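JOB MANIFEST
job_type = single_chain_structure
chain_count = 1
residues = 131
[input]
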Amino acid sequence: MDFPDELKYSKEHVWTRIEGERAVIGLTDYAQETLGTISAVDLPSVGDELEQDDSFGSVEARKTAAELYAPVSGEVLEVNNELESSPETINDDPYDAGWIAIVSLNDPEELKSLMSAEDYADYVAVAEEEE
């Protein structure tokens, strides 16, 4: 599994890439692999206000459905509409073409509650041991 160093990670398996005052968010490689082939994505709407740790959408896969929880607070600036017709893009390329939304970064302090790639890899390793 791949956990790029430049990203921050939540315990809910959502990654965040900071681009200036914007945060690009998506589902981690671990999450997409655990879920299996993603068959549908419920995206937020542009203009929605997200609060850190609140649900902002969901993904459906053959195995299950999973809520998506916001890693940071902010206004949704863009959504990846390509996922509506090709949700499996998250499986194929979770960190680039499979991004879910771009939000304004309302409170940079919230980033401190997210994990580094190394910490997230350790977190996933513990989760796998418990399975």
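[summary]
The mean pLDDT is 95.
The longest strand covers residues 55-61.
exit_status = 0
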